[in-house]
Amino acid sequence: MSSPTTIRQREIPGGPRSAVVRNYSVGTIGEMEVQFRAALPLEPPFAVGVSIEVAPVGPDIRTLALATQSQVFVLSFLQPPSATQKEALRNLLKIQYLAGFELPYTIALLAHALGSDVSGYDLSTLKNEDVVMPGDFLHWKNVDVSARPINELWDGGISRRSDVESTGTPEPNYALRAWFAAMYVTLIPLAFFDPPSPPQRSRNGHRGLAIRPTIELTIC
User: Fold this and answer.
1) Where are the chain's structural domains?
2) 137-177, pLDDT tens digit by residue?
3) Number of neighbouring beta carbons within 10 Å of residue 169
4) 3-class DSSP state for residue 134?
5) With the CA atoms of 60, 62, 68 and 71 taken in that order, what torsion angle do they form, in degrees rounded to the nearest 10?
């Protein structure tokens, strides 16, 4: 594991200002799991935010980021995980409140990589089930919040990075994306939460103690 770094934000009102980022390789999944479990809050509502980076060729995952309100755990796939490592990853993702933006895309790739079911809660469709960017959702909830700087930060800080050549394309910060997803749950009104009940399967997915709507995908 490399030395921890820190990411910061000031665009989302009411959210934490900084988070510690810890980086791991597939060979240190065991260490990551111990530190990740220790960082999970004990009481809901909370969420683990998820974001992935895809390899340039094929449907392979290059980076997986999982975030709480204060810490981000970034796993780099420098080599394909072994069967034992896949099992450890499946255990990591057994989280009641796994949430992210553009989640159907994310969990399809995770299910493909792990060969098992992955479920979570799509934050992109909380606004009347229309797909929205993170900044647009916050602006919808609070008109005093500007959507543009949040969306630009989400896409890689296009207007902020003077070191990027005009012909270049800024790369998204996947640790920051996962962190944003984690903090969004605390900013969402409780009306978006289902009442406590045993999980139930419906035509649209897996419903239970969760943020609506829920998505589940299995690839064998």
Assistant:
1) 5-217
2) 778 777 888 888 888 888 875 434 434 443 444 556 899 99
3) 10
4) helix
5) 170
What residues form DSSP beta bridges with 24? 75
Residue count of the chain: 220
- Name the residue with tokens 């770094």: 5
Q: In what order do the strands lie in the sheet with 71-76?
A: 5-8, 18-25, 71-76, 61-67, 48-54, 98-100, 118-122, 214-217
Looking up tokens 């995908």 gives: 217
H or E element at residue 33: helix 29-39
> Quick check: pTM over 0.90?
no
Give the span between the Cα atoms of 42 and 30, in whole angstroms. 21
Instruction: Return d(Cα 82, Cα 146) in angstroms, integer.
Output: 44
Assigned CATH topology for domain 5-217: Nucleotidyltransferase; domain 5 (3.30.420)
Helix (H, G, I), strand (E, B) or coil at 108: helix
Q: Which residue has the tokens 């829920």?
A: 214
Q: Which residues pair with 215 in a beta bridge?
A: 120
Residues near 58 by beta carbon (within 8 Å), at least 6 away in sequence: none
Q: Which two tokens stand for residue 107?
A: 């969990």
Q: What are the Cα distances from residue 8, in Å, to 21, 28, 117, 173?
A: 10, 26, 33, 12
